[in-house]
Design a protein that fits this description.
It is a single chain. About 50% of the residues lie in helices and about 0% in strands. It is built from four helices and no strands. It has helices at about 5-10, 15-20, 25-35, 55-65. The two termini are about 35 Å apart.
Length: about 70
């Protein structure tokens, strides 16, 4: 969403003020995505952190662009 528009909605005089509140870390983003997904989605589980673990050294090299 356009931060200028959000800044105006919130009544901030400076866009920098809105930027203070607009930062979201990776965990916040993951939670927001999971909340927006259908509850029947098989990717949503009690312990979903395992989905992001990669133990295969070759796959890791490819993901990092080393191979």
């Amino acid at each position: 969403m356009d931060l200028t528009l959000i800044s105006q909605w919130l009544g901030h005089a400076q866009l920098d003020t809105t930027l203070i509140y607009s930062h979201a870390d990776t965990e916040q983003k993951r939670k927001a995505i999971e909340q927006s997904m259908d509850s029947q989605n098989p990717l949503l589980g009690k312990d979903s952190s395992f989905r992001f673990q990669v133990d295969d050294e070759e796959v890791l090299k490819k993901l990092y662009g080393l191979k």
